[in-house]
From TrEMBL:
Residues 26-273 form the Carbohydrate kinase PfkB domain. Gene3D superfamilies: 3.40.1190.20. It holds the Pfam family PfkB. SUPFAM superfamilies: Ribokinase-like. This is Ribokinase. One of its GO terms (molecular function) is kinase activity. Keywords: Kinase, Transferase. GO terms for cellular component: cytosol.
């Protein structure tokens, strides 16, 4: 099934306690597409500037990412600069330069309009709605958002949420969006806004999949080496959505495997800066870590206790 991602492609400058990287490949669409490309071809809709390195475009193309929807406009590429402390839980944004991304207006080709699975990256909710307007008959539309849109464009976001099937947020964003402190109450409140399913990303504590009648909790892989969490959430979404797009049908078992694969992809992404680790691994590595997750979470039923 065709998988389309609409979002940002950026040049990131990142500082963590383990080093500094300047102008490396980043952006929600780049992380998502790279992760998803391990399983299925991906169509990407984004914008870059004249200064965007050809090597990055060549890399994406080499991963079976259709970049025909990536327009190269006059001006500079979207740039983000951030710094992480030792806890690596949240970045301190030092500089944001939207550049050509400021006037990004997604226009889908006929090929893009036929996409069956659509990922709306972390862009303005009105732009997300414009994409939904243009796709013909998608099987599933997922969206990501952030505190900036929750606080500054809430009305537009609520309208968009009524039109998507699945939402990705972190736990802080879930509380902000819902006004509820308890994470399950927050999830129920968000589901009432329209999405059928909610994935709450909780960083080193894993992720929750919340549906109307059930909840699935997926842990994060315990890692000895975590260098850069930038893009981990988008990488998670890429693995998750690729699992859905390659399944014959989306049911409870598929969704749970998608959660684990999302966590697998994110666990690799954080082991090096930018997309460096994802460039190194193979499908065999993914399979091995997926099996590791299974061993990590497996346990037998509790025998009947005496009264």
């Amino acid at each position: 099934m065709s998988l389309l991602v609409v979002g940002s492609v950026a040049l990131d400058s990142v500082e963590t306690p383990f080093g500094i990287k300047e102008d490396v490949l980043g952006g929600s669409a780049a992380f998502f597409a790279t992760a998803a490309s391990f399983f299925t071809p991906v169509q990407m809709l984004a914008v870059v500037g004249e200064d965007f390195p050809q090597a990055h475009l060549d890399f994406l193309r080499s991963r079976s990412v259709d970049i025909s929807g990536v327009s190269q406009e006059k001006g500079r590429t979207f740039r983000w600069k951030g710094r992480y402390g030792w806890q690596l839980n949240e970045a301190e944004t030092l500089d944001t330069q939207l550049n050509v991304f400021q006037s990004f207006a997604p226009k889908l080709s006929e090929l893009h309009r036929d996409a069956q699975y659509v990922m709306l990256g972390n862009i303005h909710p009105e732009l997300q709605a414009q994409v939904v307007d243009q796709v013909k008959a998608p099987k599933l539309v997922a969206a990501d958002t952030m505190n900036f849109w929750i606080n500054g464009s809430r009305a537009e976001l609520i309208k968009t949420l009524a039109r998507v099937n699945l939402l990705f947020v972190n736990d802080t964003e879930a509380r902000q969006l819902s006004g509820e402190h308890n994470i399950l109450r927050a999830a129920r409140a968000i589901l009432a806004m329209g999405p059928e399913r909610l994935v709450i990303k909780r960083g080193e504590y894993g992720a929750l999949l919340v549906e109307k009648d059930q909840v699935f909790a997926c842990p994060a892989m315990p890692l000895a080496d975590v260098f850069d969490p930038t893009g981990a959430g988008d990488t998670f979404a890429g693995g998750f959505m690729a699992m859905l797009a390659t399944a014959k049908q989306v049911d409870s078992d598929v969704l749970r495997r998608a959660m684990v694969m999302g966590s697998v992809m994110a666990s690799f992404a954080v082991e090096k800066f930018s997309l460096e680790r994802l460039k190194e691994i193979s499908r065999a590595d993914l399979h091995a870590r997926f099996s590791e997750f299974k061993r990590l979470t497996h346990f037998d039923d509790l025998p009947m206790l005496d009264a």
